[in-house]
């Protein structure tokens, strides 16, 4: 898929535990390695299936690089969004491979005043199709009413 842009500083705070090799936390800005370890922990905490997962982070450009192999395109997109919707990340470089390639979903950036019904009406022409968007964004979304402006969502065909 390539390089994806996100809005840095608007995403969720990453509260996932860092992987054990993380350096001690500093009271100010976390190091690039600390952020990479937290992103790795975040993906694992969501239970997203990926083999050979590797996450690196460049603090100068706020770029997260994800490598690994997934079974489906949906899993790949969920991992990209799980990382991209975190506050320190401005871009995600997707270097993952998919065992069974499928058509890519569209991505939608939530605007102020949006809800899943409004987005479903815009993209599918039917507000009642909001559960399709909600399901496509699990486990990142726990509740259909908890989306925020700037968040990027998967919109399946």
From TrEMBL:
Keywords assigned: Cytoplasm
Pfam families tied to this protein: BON, LysM
Localization annotation: Cytoplasm
GO cellular component: cytoplasm
Superkingdom of the source species: Bacteria
CDD domains, per the entry: LysM
Residues of the LysM domain: 106-155
PANTHER family reported in the protein's UniProt record: POTASSIUM BINDING PROTEIN KBP
Protein name: Potassium binding protein Kbp
Gene label: lysM
């Amino acid at each position: 898929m390539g390089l994806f842009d996100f809005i840095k500083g608007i995403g969720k705070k990453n509260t996932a535990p860092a992987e054990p090799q993380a350096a001690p936390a500093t009271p100010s800005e976390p190091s690039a390695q600390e952020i990479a370890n937290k992103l790795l922990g975040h993906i694992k905490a969501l239970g997203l299936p990926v083999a050979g997962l590797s996450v690196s982070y460049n603090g100068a450009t706020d770029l997260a690089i994800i490598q690994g192999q997934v079974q489906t395109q949906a899993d790949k997109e969920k991992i990209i969004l799980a990382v991209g919707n975190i506050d320190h990340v401005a871009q995600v470089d997707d270097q993952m491979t998919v065992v069974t390639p499928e058509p890519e979903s569209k991505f939608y950036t939530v605007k102020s005043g949006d809800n899943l019904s409004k987005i479903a009406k815009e993209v599918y022409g039917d507000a009642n199709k909001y559960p399709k968007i909600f399901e496509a964004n699990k486990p990142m979304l726990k509740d259909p009413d908890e989306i925020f402006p700037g968040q990027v969502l998967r919109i399946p065909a």
